[in-house]
TrEMBL record:
Coiled coil: none annotated. The keyword Transferase applies. Keywords: Kinase, Transferase. It comes from the Bacteria. It holds the Pfam family APH_6_hur. This is Streptomycin 6-kinase. It comes from Saccharothrix saharensis. GO terms for molecular function: kinase activity; phosphotransferase activity, alcohol group as acceptor. Gene3D superfamilies: Transferase(Phosphotransferase) domain 1. GO terms for biological process: secondary metabolic process. Signal peptide: none annotated. The keyword Heme does not apply.
Length: 287
């Protein structure tokens, strides 16, 4: 296993779990070594960082795998369950083994995140991904509703309007209009099981097809899993074209997708305040 930057891991995970997580972070090399011995794994590099876990590339013989460790075993067990649920789609990594606070998955190869590809995925590729995921039945499990997810996000991110740097670009009026649009869409939404967090950083190049990781499933409008893909064309004047094209490829209502783009554009703009071209196009779309 390559050396672990415990300070980096601690700084990253403390943002979610608070300072007490430092003790767990200090034990990451020891924990990984214990699991490797138990499951006969050869450990490799620490993979790109996440907000709630540490992922280590590993292998057993010639088979590449990914070992995920988290200080929140309930979260990790839930994620394993969700990945198994989405397994029939063929578009998530397979779960190979799990124990408390530890998850072993097949590796996705080449595994480049979609937001790091030289050329973003084509609309047809994204459409095929969401169609496969949305084809998995919800099986009457008590999944969260998309409305609850949106209400939480608008409340949490809306607090940032108190920051003058944010308020200089996103007004209370713009934010209120965005929520009104979102609420209207939620009132009339069709309902399928969604990945729920399908931004380009959570989609990997699987060689022959795109693969989704880190699902946060909820039930709601299938357009929701396409919005991030459409809005990342901002800054190049391509949001309407990309939205129309991917909607057609995925057999989605293009008008609903355009409305979702307008509703969520201010939220995405806050994440890109330093990118003038992207911020400007997103806020123009919101208005």
């Amino acid at each position: 296993m390559t050396p672990v930057d415990v300070d980096e891991i601690t700084s990253r995970l403390a943002q979610r779990f608070g300072p007490p997580v430092a003790g767990w972070c200090a034990r990451v090399p020891e924990l990984a070594a214990e699991v490797a011995a138990r499951w006969d794994l050869t450990l490799g590099d620490v993979m790109p960082p996440g907000a709630s876990s540490v992922v280590v590339a590993c292998s057993r013989g010639e088979a590449p795998m990914a070992l995920k460790l988290s200080p929140d075993p309930v979260f990790l067990a839930s994620q394993a369950s969700v990945l198994r649920h989405f397994a029939p789609s063929g578009r998530v990594p397979a779960v190979l083994a799990e124990a408390e606070g530890v998850l072993l998955m097949e590796a996705v190869r080449p595994g480049t995140p979609a937001d790091e590809l030289p050329t973003p995925p084509a609309p047809r590729e994204w459409a095929d991904l969401v169609t496969a995921l949305h084809g998995v039945p919800d099986r009457d499990r008590p999944w969260p509703d998309l409305r609850a997810r949106c209400e939480e996000a608008f409340t949490r991110i809306g607090r940032r309007l108190a920051d003058p740097a944010v308020a200089a670009h996103v007004s209370e009026r713009t934010w209120s209009r965005a929520w009104d649009r979102c609420s209207a869409l939620l009132n009339t939404q069709p309902r399928v099981l969604l990945h729920g967090d399908l931004h380009l950083g959570n989609v990997l190049d699987g060689g022959h097809a795109l693969v989704a990781i880190d699902p946060r499933p909820c039930v709601g409008d299938p357009c929701f899993d396409v919005v991030d893909y459409a809005l990342t064309a901002a800054g190049h004047g391509d949001v309407p074209t990309r939205a129309t094209t991917v909607a057609a490829a995925a057999a989605l209502d293009p008008d609903r997708l355009h409305d979702w783009c307008r509703a969520l554009a201010p939220m995405i703009a806050i994440a890109y305040l330093d990118d003038e071209a992207m911020r400007t196009e997103l806020l123009t779309l919101a208005r």
